UniProtKB/TrEMBL annotation:
Annotated catalysed reactions: tRNA(Phe) + L-phenylalanine + ATP = L-phenylalanyl-tRNA(Phe) + AMP + diphosphate + H(+)
MF terms (GO), sorted A to Z: ATP binding; phenylalanine-tRNA ligase activity; tRNA binding
Subcellular location, record wording: Mitochondrion matrix
InterPro entries listed in its UniProt record: aa-tRNA-synth_II, aa-tRNA-synth_II/BPL/LPL, Fdx_antiC-bd, Fdx_antiC-bd_sf, Phe-tRNA-synth_IIc_mito, Phenylalanyl-tRNA_Synthase
GO cellular component terms listed in the entry, alphabetical order: mitochondrial matrix
Name of the featured protein: Phenylalanine--tRNA ligase, mitochondrial
Top-level lineage group: Eukaryota
PROSITE patterns: AA_TRNA_LIGASE_II, FDX_ACB
Function: Is responsible for the charging of tRNA(Phe) with phenylalanine in mitochondrial translation.
Gene3D superfamilies: Bira Bifunctional Protein, Domain 2, Ferrodoxin-fold anticodon-binding domain
Keyword annotations from UniProtKB, A to Z: Aminoacyl-tRNA synthetase, ATP-binding, Ligase, Mitochondrion, Nucleotide-binding, Protein biosynthesis, Transit peptide
Amino acid sequence: MFGSRRIAKVLLPRVSSRSSIALLVQRSGPFPSSARLCWRAAYSSDAATSTANVTTNSKTVEINGKKYATDSWFNVSSTVLSLTSRKLHLQKDHPVAITRKIIESVFPEPTYRYYNEFDPVVSTYENFDSLGFPPDHPGRARTDTYYINKNTLLRTHTSAHEAELFRASASGGYLISADVYRRDEVDRSHYPVFHQMEGARVWDRDKVPGKDLAAAVLADLERLPKHNMTVEDPNPPFHPERNPLQAGHHTEAEAAAVAAHLKRSLELMVNEIFSRAKAAAAAANAAAGDASPTDNKNNEEPLRVRWVEAYFPFTSPSWELEVFYQGDWLEVLGCGVSRQELHAGAGRPSQVGWAFGIGLERIAMLLFRIPDIRLFWSRDERFLSQFRGVEDDPSRIRPFVPFSKHPACYKDVSFWLAGAFSAAGGNPRGGAADWHENDLMEVVRDAAGDCVEDVRLVDEFTHPKTGRRSKCYRINYRSLEKTLTNQETNEMHDRVVRGLVEKLGVEIR
Ligand code: FA5
Ligand code: MG
């Protein structure tokens, strides 16, 4: 019954349920409330789970030494809870921390202040409302976000601290580095916990010389270093429909000046990262006695970077920066001119500025050529030793050398969706539309942890008579650290199957 049914044809491309905060805004319609009813808690309410810093029981959860009351919204697995204490961005010589330090060097003190210790537990107000997310925004769904209780969650992005820092107004700019949490798919570039760096720069229109904001911003732009990287930027600084400036708040000259300062600042950051990546590859080649320094074998692709228009509820106009990497455009950050409502709401209506949010793992993967996001969580010396001494001396950065590629073993699981998910289940909403793949991903992560490389939907079927729906997922088991035995893989797969039955109520085919 739990057999590994193999289906050769991969039927559907994978679509991330949440590839970005920006994307989500474009989906409309209220969050399907039935999804809430379908969730069964990912932890046993009786059995207290305990790790170094985390304890849960049916009523409270302790995270980083603080206790929080849980309620029916609680959906954080013990695996994810156990990661809240890791703080990779603060771990000396960890690639995430090294990447943070390099980015900080491009945004120097005292103009920028660094905040690296904010607690991951925030209110729904901080994470969503303070940033202008509408009440029915899909990002608030329990299928996408880890809730402690109805009003408290694990932050999904570092922007959760924006309003607080705008209010404090302690410096001309800031950087926040922190762990962020999203229920998401399982593959080599997605992990339920990753690290973001948020940056912002503000000017006070009442305090700049002659109250000429645009001139002050342009003068600061002039003081920034220049770079000779080619950047594709085909769109105008703002567009009335697609990417409007904030009429009534900013003149065209002001919006254009802030946008130019923002883009140059971020281009300098990308240039810094890629210059270091290039130097690292050249040094590795030289050490391997590989041809002359002019041999560009591993860097044959010239760096390509482009700006694309984007949407965030808390910036306008907005952009994403993409880098051409391994044959495709990879989004590395989102940014824009901060919405004036945020400054006003923080009691600083005369402030104007920009903000950005970047994924540190994504940048670290480019910088060190780290092929799998799970590696960042490894405590294996063969991983960690490759970065030792680099934080204090970034000239020692070298491309990561994979220590092994252990064999993969995939197993399929086929099941009928539970009544509430199934068209035959009498759900007036059509049921199956409320099936959330992220719930399955969470069960898999909980049962098999980092031994799962990816999970893919390989078959779907609707029974022509009963309307019952079935799905088949292929789970690819591969440890980064050792060769899994058949028995280990089978045991993990059995745990996955049991978890799907117990937590999602599916019926195994
Ligand atoms: C945000 O999170 C916004 N808060 C960014 C922002 C800040 C915009 C300030 C404007 C002003 P987004 O969801 O696109 O946006 O994520 C930002 C970056 O985080 C992405 O560009 C990417 O580099 C990284 N990221 C997002 N999801 C993942 C993921 N699942 N795994 C790894 N990195 C991710
Ligand atoms: Mg995005």
